[in-house]
Amino acid sequence: MNEAANTSDLSIPPAVAAPVKASGGLQGVIAAPSSICFIDGNEGRLVYRGYEITDLVGQISFEETAFLLWDEKLPNAAELSSLKQDLGSSIALPPHVMALLRTLPPKTQLMDALRTACSALGALDPDLLSNDRPANRRKAVRLTAQLPTIVAAFHRLRGGLEPIAPDPKLSIAANFLYMLNGKRPHETLTRVLDAALVLHAEHGFNASTFAARVTAATLADMHAAITAAIAALKGSLHGGANQEVMELLLQCGDAEGAEKKVRAMLANKEKVPGFGHRVYKTFDPRAHFLRKMSRELGEAAGNTKWYEMSERLIPILHDEKKLNPNVDFFSASAYYTMGIPIDLYTPIFAIARVAGWTAHVMEQHSNNRIIRPQDDYTGPFGLKVVPIAQRA
Ligand SMILES: CC(C)(COP(=O)(O)OP(=O)(O)OC[C@H]1O[C@@H](n2cnc3c(N)ncnc32)[C@H](O)[C@@H]1OP(=O)(O)O)[C@@H](O)C(=O)NCCC(=O)NCCS
User: Fold this and answer.
1) pTM over 0.90
2) Which residues pair with 362 in a beta bridge?
């Protein structure tokens, strides 16, 4: 036996590749291959399945975007019509989910109601326990159809109003607006919301998508993964920022007030919602579109105040911190001008991002390995158990 082989002493750990220490927040870590989305943070470029976002917005609907993300190609007319039919036939909520929404206290946050109801949707889903692609694809369609219905239904219930039954012939964007107040939405509002859904549909390994993939990688089902994603989206560093942007603008009253407030926030080292991004080091390409939408909606409504206040903040954040607006910044003033209640902004993000989340769950399940990093232990060793009576 040579000397190397003679080291079979149990106190000597077997040779393993030295773990690589990740930077804080996993910055710069590539967690897995993916063919769904490409982001170039230096160039401000976003690509869904090979298509530049600049080509997709205004040219394809949210339904076509979902098909693209799930099926890796744009649908032809027959495929789109079949998808719309499938979405329409899934859009009403099962009775047990509607009954559950009725039991939630009216002050329940919309994102919490959405997360709870999404989890409950799994209970009676006919494909719940199958993670194969056809089953996952069917669940992706059902979840994409049902999340907007949950948000609109709970929004009405919490205000003491009966939910409005969805119209299966309408698009996701039109139906959502219709279910909020029972009025057929104006074509412009539907078009703007549809474009916003396209812009929010997918964004690589962002926090909520990563939460979905981590959950799916344990072989938990699609509903479990999407419930986890909704939970992650809620936070103010992620999807919750759009609501905070509007709250900030309202609190400031006018452009001078906004400038003063934001300068004070920066002096206090506080974060200004709607600015900064882990990946984009230049203008977020989605913000370009939302900026234009915010301006045009303001002009059409004869009130560009919120758009102008937003514009006033951009050079301040750029000059002081080299930060640019992200997707949440102009979506706030755009949605506000559309008359959408402020706490619906983050749920609208979820209604869109479910297309990307479900695409990622399918990709994860199709080539799975459990996601299990290590931590960098910083605690003590060698402590001894002291009997409880002697503990301080
Ligand atoms: C998006 C975000 C979470 C990215 O976080 P991150 O990559 O971890 O970046 P950090 O939080 O480490 O920020 C780096 C520096 O920029 C500053 N910064 C980042 N975003 C800022 C903001 N919105 N306002 C003020 N300062 C900000 C940080 O304070 C930090 O400054 P320092 O180096 O002097 O300490 C962060 O920019 C943020 O919190 N933005 C506001 C919330 C938001 O809009 N979220 C939606 C994202 S789409």
Assistant:
1) yes
2) none
Residues in the chain: 392
In order of start, what are the domains of the chain with their CATH numbers?
A: 37-235+347-366 (1.10.580.10), 241-337 (1.10.230.10)
Whether residue 328 lies in the annotated active site: yes
* Radius of gyration, alpha carbons of the chain: 23
- First-to-final CA distance of the chain: 54
- Ligand 1 pocket residue status of 271, Cβ below 6 Å: yes
Judge if the beta carbon of residue 277 lies within 6 A of ligand 1.
yes
**pLDDT per residue as tens digits for the range 85-108:** 999 999 999 999 999 999 999 999
Looking at ligand 1, which residue's alpha carbon is closest to its atom 37?
Answer: 276
Q: 326 CB under 6 A from ligand 1?
A: yes
Q: Is the pLDDT of residue 354 over 50?
A: yes
Residue that the structure tokens 């299966």 belong to:
168
Place of tokens 């007319």: 77
pLDDT digits (tens, 9 = 90+) for 108-143: 999 999 999 999 999 999 999 999 999 999 999 999
166-193 confidence digits (pLDDT tens): 999 999 999 999 999 999 999 999 999 9
**Mutation probe of ligand 1 site: the residue of 237, 283, 353 with most atoms within 8 A of C-beta:** 237
Atom of ligand 1 nearest to the CA of 329: 44
Q: Where are the alpha helices (DSSP H) in 201-304?
A: 207-216, 222-233, 241-252, 255-267, 285-301
Per annotation, catalytic residue among 203, 277, 360, 365: 277
Cβ atoms of 68 and 60 closer than 8 Å: yes
Tell me if 359 sits within 8 A of 65, measured CB to CB: no
Evaluate: CB of 328 within 6 angstroms of ligand 1.
yes
- Residue among 110, 186, 14, 165 at smallest CA distance from 347: 110
Residues with Cβ within 8 Å of residue 320, at least 6 apart in sequence: 263, 266
The pLDDT value recorded for residue 8 is: 42
The answer to whether residue 385 scores a pLDDT higher than 60 is yes
The C-alpha atoms of residue 91 and residue 227 are separated, in whole angstroms, by 18
